């Protein structure tokens, strides 16, 4: 068969897996750069700049970097090729595994990863893909539940890049997959593996806590669908695990500032459980697809200590999906669905 002319060949296609971001090192200087970029995003902090800028630059970026650097240092991975921030390590592994799985299924797709804040940035990776001749790019955020603070911010970053590019590639975006069957089943498999070793919660003296990242309550009032999508994920996961309502709780973590955030808050909830006689909690974080500072330090260190010092006896953190095969397979199916017609 005569090959098609190059002008008629299938355009090069790529998937860009986008996660939130991470500092380059667990140092105050690196945290100052990272937090400065992160907290300057008006999708993240929706205050007028004349109000927020003096607080950010006059207080937060003077005080918080040193405190945050210590927290990052406590979870930083330092083992040969896995050296670095856990979020970066796991996201890179996910991208590599997804790339291999798509190619194994016969799809000629390049998969890269990028960070919304920090490096490699979305703009850097889009530049590199275009330099390689990629003409079609699927933007796949690592956020199963949609929020303007996360998913829409990724879209903003891509739009900012396109505003400076004369010859644009075709672009597609994945907005959400909070109710995707493969995603739910991967979560259930992760938790069932844990329970095979430690036993299921009985609902009386032991419970499963599903902790999602928090969001200001105001965002929900203004129409952000994140809260409802978290509840849907939790319900579907509970059904897959065959849990009764008394065996699990949905909570929200990582509150920042004095404003009211989505409730119930994770740490006060587990403290109240301990004081009420619950001896054991297992905590999973379904909204995080990679282990990171919020799961490894906030949950597995701070919340663990809060539960145990409040009278609890046993605290077990269930790791994120990371590079579990079931999750990579689910991620491949999500990508394939949105790549339909391009391949």
Automatic annotation (TrEMBL):
EC main group: lyase
InterPro entries: Ferrochelatase, Ferrochelatase_AS, Ferrochelatase_C, Ferrochelatase_N
Compartments where found: Cytoplasm
Any one GO biological process: heme biosynthetic process
Major localization class: cytoplasm
Entry's Gene Ontology cellular component terms: cytoplasm
Protein's UniProt keywords contain Metal-binding: yes
CDD domains noted in UniProt: Ferrochelatase_C, Ferrochelatase_N
EC code(s) of this entry: 4.98.1.1
GO molecular function, one term: ferrochelatase activity
Pathway of action: Porphyrin-containing compound metabolism; protoheme biosynthesis; protoheme from protoporphyrin-IX: step 1/1
Keyword annotations: Cytoplasm, Heme biosynthesis, Iron, Lyase, Metal-binding, Porphyrin biosynthesis
Binding site residues for Fe(2+): 213, 294
Family affiliation: Belongs to the ferrochelatase family.
The protein's name in its UniProt record: Ferrochelatase
Organism (species): Hylemonella gracilis ATCC 19624
